Amino acid sequence: MRPLSIAFASVAALGAVSTASAADYKIDPSHTHVLFLVNHLGFSNMIGLFGETTGTIGFDPATPAASKLKVDVKTGSLQTQFAPRDVDLKGADWFNVAEFPDMTFVGKTFTKKDDKSGQVTGDLTLLGVTKPVTLDVAFNKAGVRPTDKADTVGFSARGSLNRSDFGLKTFIPYIGDKVDLIIETEATR
Q1: Model pTM?
Q2: What would you report as the CA-atom Rg of the chain, rounded to the nearest whole angstrom?
């Protein structure tokens, strides 16, 4: 269950972001969702969510390679809709939120596939271990959000990682090593 919804992944969904004449956007925590799925005994995939994500995006769709992305996910915001499991996952055998309260993702390379998709590869730091993670990113929309008139961009990202790469080996192979990530985000300036 130690899977990283990575923020990072938390927002790594911003693979189409950029900075040459880029606008700087602040991740909207109320419209950002970092989810993970991990196999449970072969019977199902357990879904978890990190509820507190912050960060910044430098975005210019004309020059994605110049993008910037920095995301912070509070590991203590983990939720799985089952309180006893949440307590366990926040403990020392899993996310160890007392010692490692933050999971971070910093975008390093941004590759554009077409006008609406690309990839972002960045450094994910979890449990004090930093490893590269690549996410497939869809650029959903840029414009003025009608509800609050904020200049907004939106992204969706998908990816996967092996939790054992970050030292999270509890109950492997019973609880899957591979963690699938689903990230949805809006950012405003």
Answers
A1: 0.87
A2: 16
Q: Is the pLDDT of residue 96 over 50?
A: yes
Whether residue 1 is contained in a domain is answered as no
* Domain range for 170: 7-188
Q: 23-44 burial string, b = 16+ CB within 10 Å, else e? A: bebebbbeebbbbbbbbeeeee
Looking only at the bridges linking them, the beta strands covering 129-144 and 102-114 are unpaired
Calculate the average pLDDT of the chain. 90
Residue 147 lies in a domain: yes
Largest CA distance in the chain: 49
Exposure on the CB side of residue 86, measured as CA atoms within 13 A: 13
Cα 70 to Cα 123: distance, rounded to the nearest angstrom? 10
Residue 73: inside a domain = yes
> What is the distance between the alpha carbons of residues 72 and 7, in angstroms, rounded to a whole number?
6
Predicted confidence band of residue 7 (pLDDT cuts 50, 70, 90): very low
Rounded CA-CA distance 144/82 in Å is: 37
**Mean pLDDT over residues 89-102, rounded?**
98
Q: Is residue 132 part of a domain?
A: yes
Number of domains in the chain: 1
Going along 41-150, which residue ranges are E strands? 44-50, 53-59, 68-74, 78-79, 102-114, 117-126, 129-144
